[in-house]
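forwarding from the other thread:

> can someone predict this with nicotinamide-adenine-dinucleotide?

sure thing
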Amino acid sequence: MAKVRVAINGFGTIGKRVADAVARQPDMTLVGVTKTQPSFEARRAAEKGYPLYVAGDKDPTAFEAAGLKVAGRLSDLLAQADVVVDAAPDKVGKENRAIYARHGIRAVFQGGEKSDVAEASFNALGNFEAGRGKRSLRVVSCNTTGIARAAAVLRAHWGVDHWEVTLVRRAADPAESKRGPLNGIVPTLQLPSHHGPDVRTIFPDLVIATTAVVVPTTLMHVHVNHARLKRAPADAHEVLEAFRHSPRFLLFAPWEHVEGTPQVMEYARDRGIGFNDVMENVLWEEGLRLDGRDVYFFQAIHQESVVVPENVDAIRAMFELAPDGPTSIAITDRALGLTTAPS
Ligand code: NAD
């Protein structure tokens, strides 16, 4: 079968990572990426040999003046692709949707868009089958992806009666120098926060309430979870084993001395997959407690990368390139060099 040709529109935090991930897949070809203006990221695209196109109605001469070769405009890129991954800033994807429709091209949108931007919201562990054959999908946000993955595991093993999550959110991505807070803890006063309803775009029947605070860090989000399960696991070890044997989870044992997100990111730098990312949900073994049907646990989510494998699986679901979710996830994770779950 011919490889699916993938275009990336928006080459920032998410787009550049998805571009690398697509380029590594055995069943996909990266046909090009767009930039709105010359930048160090445009330079990196050129250095990696990714054909560079001009986004929107921007001026190609600025690229040429910077010595960057431009292969054409967005419309030229879309003409060569089977699917576009829209990784433009929040709400711009909705505007781009009309362009994609005019080109008759399939599209994957990101979590900064409202759910009605696409035919369905998507999470590979949560609802792979819902993406099958679709012409448009929305990969849910980083926090929603993290919760949906954990929900997929808990629901499959014991069922979830109800769930409360407090999200401790990073203030900005590492490259953002104009966002805060720099010194403060800012509660999200909307109660519950939007994350719970967003998780229900994946699991419509899940009873979940979320609250959130923003803190001055760029490293990761941390979720503080309390889920009441429908059936009681035998012990905490059984719950840990369920997470350990699921793809897209990375557990740290007490002897590893991972006190918090700084050591998680240091582990990521040691492991050294692309961008030193952590695309898995990170759990602390010590930080999971079971009390009857009540499970309490922490998980850390690397906001810049957790959705990257989900974008790849979304494409595979749309084009029915894999017989099921677990097969797609295994292909994606092998290509990305992610830790594979023990069988
Ligand atoms: P970003 O600002 O890092 O990158 C967006 C890129 O799109 C920039 O390079 C920008 O120049 C470019 N762009 C601007 N207008 C454009 C247009 N009209 N057409 C094409 N490109 C355009 O943003 P990001 O963090 O990568 O976010 C992209 C999407 O991913 C958003 O929906 C966001 O909510 C979502 N998301 C972000 C994170 C995160 O932590 N950064 C996590 C999960 C999901």
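The chain has a mean pLDDT of 97. thats all i got for now
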